[in-house]
Structures are given as structure tokens and as C-alpha cells.
Amino acid sequence: MSGDSVEHASARIIEGYAHGGTDLAADEVWAVEAHLETCRECRDRLSAAVGAGVPAVAALVGSVWSGLEPQLAATAPMPRGRRWSGRLSRWMTPTMVPWLAMAVAVTLLALLLDLGDSGSGSGSGSGDVSLVLLLAPVLPVLGVAASWSRGLDPAYELTASVPRAGLQLVLRRTASVLGVVVPALLVGGWVTGVMVAQWLLPCLAFTATTLALGGVVGVTRAAVALAAVWAAVVVAPTLAAGRTALVLRADGLPVWGLLLVLGVGVVIARRGAYSVLGAHR
């Protein structure tokens, strides 16, 4: 794409897209479709190209529009609440709500169990296991997995195939999950006296690693696999031993910081992989 202050689609891409996009690469088709959503000038150029080069398509569009125009003129404007719901749908889907509610409920349950152990006199020393700390890394991961689940989202195919269903949409849904889970963990960590960095760094690093691995095997598969590994390697041995695992102590924070940086780096380096439908499986 070229231009002065604003980049526009080249004449080759506009002509190719007007003829069905068969001569364009897949990433060029995705890019031009996303660009057309916000660029009126390129939409006008596309319309002119269709009218000049594909008159049959122009005639079909004209006939369809002539039939729809009276109905659209009589349609009532969208209520303000519906518009707000439409903006919210850019960040999350209705299927995410019960999973996010479950994540918050699990956090509160873990907090209550931590407080119950402390109040019963079992001790709150450094050797005790904090369930809030133990579950912090995987709670947002499960929400991210639910946001891309083919079986849970009835509009999955439609959502995953739109031009903006790349990294931008993945990050939006991830941010919406973190926006709900992190405040709940913040309250739980504050009440139980767990240092913020001690649960926040594993939480963010696990999420970044899920997205990085998701660019290869799919976000949902990556989330489920990492959660299963965490449960087998950390959760089960920690509960059996009755003391906090080394990876969740303050000594392990530099490792989590490194994992976070690596995960973010991989996501940025492979950002084009999230525009592929398979990356959302």
C-alpha cells in the first residue's frame, strides 16, 4: 500500500480484489478488507473498478441495493443500548461471561479457603500454600481458551473469518479476560498478604506464553495444554507437599519476567499467524 499521509491500497490490489481476489495472496486479501472498513477513498476506488471491470457484479449490486433501500429507509435506528452492546462485542462474546464469572468465583473460593486456613490456626508462615497464588497463573488462561472455543461460541466461524480476526482481536479478548480476573486476584492477594509481583508476573507470563504457543497450535489448545501441565507439575505436587513451590516464590520472579518478555516477543514476531483460522482453534 502507498500514499502520502495515509496509506491506500495500490491499483493492483484494488483491481485484483474487484475481480474476486484470486490473483492476490491471502494476507493481501485480509489487509485490503480490513483497510476498506475505514477508508472511504479506497471503497470509492473499488466501486469504480467494479463498475468498469466487472459490470455484471455492479449490475447485481445495483439491483440488490434498489430492493433493500426502501426497507433500510424504514428501519428504526439502533437503540443506544444496542450500540453499546455492539461496541462491547468487539472485546468479548456472550459465551465468555459464564467462564469469567467462574474464574472470579474460583478466586473468591480460593481466598475464603486461604482465610479459613489462616483463621483455623494452621499458620500463615512462608511454608503454607496460598491457593490464590497457586491458581493465579491459570485463571486468565482458561478465560482466554473459552473466548476462542469452537464448541462454546455459536458465531465462531463468522468471528474467526472476518478481516480483523487477527492479533488485534486476540489481544482485545485477552485484555477483557485480564480486566476481569486481575482485579479479583488483586483483592485476593491483598487480603492474603501475597506480594503483587508474586502472582501478577506468573499470571501475565502464562497468558503471554499461551498466546505465543497459540500462534502455532491454536489459542484454545495451547491454553488447555499449559493448564494441564501446570496442574500436573505444580498444583498437584504443591498440595501434596503442603508448601509453596519454588516457581511461585520470590526467587522465581526473574524467570517469570523472562518468560513474559519472551512470550510477548514471540507474539509480536509471529503476529501474522493469528490471521489464520487455525490459530483460533
β-sheet strand percentage: under 5%
Radius of gyration: 24 Å
Biggest sheet features? none
Number of helices: 13
SSE topology string: HHHHHHHHHHHHH
Percent of residues in helical segments?
Answer: 55-70%
Whole-Å distance between the termini? 30 Å
Q: What is the residue-averaged pLDDT?
A: 75
What structural class do helix, strand and pairing data support?
mainly alpha
pLDDT < 50 stretches: 81-86, 120-127
Number of E-state strands: 0
Give the overall shape: elongated
Characterization of this structure:
It is a single chain. With 281 residues, the chain is mainly α. It is 69% helix and 0% strand. It has helices spanning 11-18, 26-36, 40-53, 55-74, 80-88, 96-119, 131-135, 139-147, 156-161, 167-192, 196-217, 219-241, 253-269. Helix 8 packs parallel to helix 11 (196-217). Mean pLDDT is 75; it is low at 81-86 and 120-127.
Features:
mainly alpha
Report a brief summary of the structure.
This protein is mainly alpha-helical. It has 13 helices and no strands.
List the SSEs and their pairings:
Layout: H1 11-18, H2 26-36, H3 40-53, H4 55-74, H5 80-88, H6 96-119, H7 131-135, H8 139-147, H9 156-161, H10 167-192, H11 196-217, H12 219-241, H13 253-269
